[in-house]
Amino acid sequence: SNTAAFTAYAKNAFNDDEQIRLAQFCEHIHARQAKFILSNSDPKNTAENDNFFDELYRDYKLLRINASRTISASAKGRAKVSEILVVGD
Q1: How far apart are CA 54 and CA 42, in angstroms?
Q2: Half-sphere CA count of 63, side-chain side, radius 13 A
Q3: d(CA 81, CA 45)
Q4: What three-state secondary structure class fits 76?
């Protein structure tokens, strides 16, 4: 089927440059007293020394939580993985 090999939500990749733009937007709204919460897949799931988000959001509360993945072609893919939550309050 067309969805059996699903790997992305959008045609264009949401790469590091896009992540930086998102962080700049969060800084912009936080400077105007807005609160936000952002979630993302934790790159440490696949690269233990990847500190990209830790550095990008160092001025905010960054939490790691376990999230269940229930959609996968194989049962092994339906495991708990780490996600990050960035809180600007």
Answers
A1: 10
A2: 9
A3: 7
A4: helix
Domains of the chain by start residue, with CATH = 16-88 (3.40.50.150)
Q: Quote the pLDDT of residue 3.
A: 53
| Residue owning tokens 């979630």 | 39
Structure tokens at 38: 């952002």
- The model's pTM is 0.76
**Token pair of 81 as six digits:** 């993985």
How confident is the model at residue 81, as a pLDDT?
87
Q: Average pLDDT of each block of 10 consecutive residues along the chain (89 residues)?
A: 59 89 97 96 93 97 89 69 94
- In sequence order, the 6+-apart residues with CB closer than 8 A to the CB of 81 are 41, 42, 45, 66, 67, 69
pLDDT at 16: 94
The span from the CA of 72 to the CA of 77, in Å, is 5
